[in-house]
Design brief:
Elements (H helix, E strand, L loop, with lengths): L1 H6 L8 E3 L7 H11 L7 E3 L7 H11 L7
Parallel strand pairs: 1-2
Helix pairs in contact: 2-3
Length: 71
């Protein structure tokens, strides 16, 4: 799942993504943060039930602050 998330950095087609229930932990928060800081096409993201801690949410937050397309 993590390599797929990193591919979002270059993806310009995907608009909605549901990666719920993968239990990927903080690595997912880090990967999403990095990918979403550059992705400009993804509009909706669902990623609940991934066992992400406060640290993982911080990684995610750092990237999402640079993203203007997610709603």
């Amino acid at each position: 799942l993590i390599p797929f998330i990193f591919s979002l950095m270059m993806n310009n087609k995907l608009r909605v993504l549901d990666i719920s229930k993968h239990e990927s932990g903080n690595r997912l928060g880090l990967a999403l943060g990095k990918a979403l800081s550059t992705n400009t096409t993804l509009q909706k993201l669902y990623w609940d039930e991934n066992s992400v801690s406060f640290l993982g949410y911080q990684y995610f937050r750092n990237g999402i602050l640079k993203n203007d397309t997610l709603s």
